[in-house]
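Running this now, will post back.
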Amino acid sequence: MHYQWGYGNINLKKGWAMIMCGRYYIDDEMAAEISRIIQNWDNRAEGRKEVFPTNTAPVIKAVGKHLEIDSPIWGFKHFDPKKSGVLINARAETVMERWMFKSSVTERRCIIPTAGFYEWDRNKTKIAFMHRESPVLYLAGFWKDDRFIILTTAPNNSIEDVHNRMPLTLERNELENWLFDPEAYKLILQKIPGALRRENVGQLL
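Update: finished.
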């Protein structure tokens, strides 16, 4: 299967690839925590569930002055109809310079709640990255129509030995600023994410 990020296609069937945040996961503990934030939302992940590009997944959006959960598809369709694949990531540092993303970031920011995300090192070891203290790792993103994209940024020392990018993570006290504040989100785009906990999961088969 082909996914796109930034510049060009990546075929994940050819072994490990330098695609950032190409898979994350949700679980019951994460769902329970989100239920405390979003009223009238009761979801169960039924154990750990991995989320792949083109899957639908829970996303937090601003609706008026309230937070609501939606379930869009991960990945924008390519803007060039001659190209296949989907765009799953965008660089936080330059996203406002790109015409195809600017209006979405300005008007349609979202939060992707996860229990953590996966990356593979050069030995093809699958590594899970999680928040150090919370059952939820919030990722910054944006949406359009029925699709969303995850923002990435330069890696901190939690992940720089594994990958040269990482998701733009959000702390609990940044969620409302990211969604509602017309100026604060610009500073968040330039932030250095907090340190993460990591756990080796196994070898890529």
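Confidence is low (pLDDT under 50) at residues 1-19. More later if anyone needs it.
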